[in-house]
Amino acid sequence: MTALYKALIPAELIQHDLDSMTLIFQKASGITHIVADPIPAILEVMGQELLSVLEIGARLVDSFDLDGDALEGGSVEDVLIARLEELRVLGLVERVSAA
């Protein structure tokens, strides 16, 4: 079973860059989250689509001119899963199990 992820609607979030950090205000909860890279980049490439970890990773590679081979072997995938789970706990991303 593969997990798919979907970010909140961008209109529900207000983002403000602050040096190396980004503030994300979540309108529904009234909570402001303070995040660092790669969180803003992950949310940016996700858009409003339901995506797998590998699809999100591929978009990060394309959008930020990263080494695509880095996704092979699992270490980057593991880090991306950890970040997506952190975003899920914050309520900024939803995880959906796909058959």
TrEMBL record:
Output the superkingdom of the source species: Bacteria
Protein name, per record: HPr-rel-A system PqqD family peptide chaperone
InterPro entries, alphabetized: PqqD-rel_X (IPR027599)
NCBIfam families annotated for this entry?
Answer: PqqD_rel_X (TIGR04353)
